[in-house]
Amino acid sequence: MPRVSSKVPGVQGCAVERTLSLIEGKWKIIVLYKLLKGTLRFNELRRLMPLVTQRMLTHQLRELEADGLIIRTVYAQVPPRVEYSLSARGRSLEPVLMAMKEWGDTNLSSQGAQAA
Q1: 113 within domain boundaries
Q2: Beta partners for residue 72, in sequence order
Q3: Looking at the 3D structure of the chain, how many domains does it have?
Q4: Which of 34, 41, 78, 103 is the most exposed place for a label (fewest CB within 10 A)?
Q5: Residue 112 forms part of a structural domain
Q6: Alpha carbon 77 to its chain's center
Q7: Mean pLDDT of the region 37-45
């Protein structure tokens, strides 16, 4: 069952707070965005996100899986193969992720960053 709780025990919070509790973390949004293009293996994600450590990526992937946003598929072969893809729940975040990308493209250009 996906975890949907606020960081403060006993506090449910509004829908925005509950949503943010699922996707908070430095790398979760980026992982979800990268998986919009399709299924990826762990090392493919690492190559696409060179600043994340292996430990942190593993932690973020586990939380995303526990929250029902991604699907982890393990293939019984040697060497082991593990693939990650968006679940239907994770895919439902696509409009949000694309809106964030568009906002960044518009508001965080090099010219816009200098003005801030």
Answers
A1: no
A2: 84
A3: 1
A4: 78
A5: no
A6: 27
A7: 97
The sheet that has 81-86: what strands, in order across it?
40-41, 81-86, 70-75
pTM equals: 0.81
Domain-located, residue 1: no
In a domain, 2, yes or no: no
CA distances from 33 to 18, 23, 58, 69, 97 (A): 19, 11, 16, 12, 6
Q: Are 82 and 73 in contact (CB under 8 A)?
A: yes
- List the CATH number of the domain containing 80: 1.10.10.10
The amino acid at residue 2 is P
Asked if pLDDT for residue 67 goes beyond 80, the answer is yes
List, in sequence order, every beta strand (DSSP E) within 1-116. 40-41, 70-75, 81-86
Distance CA(61)–CA(69), nearest Å, equals 9
Q: Which residue range is the domain that position 101 belongs to?
A: 15-107
Angle between helices 94-107 and 28-35 (to 10 degrees): 110
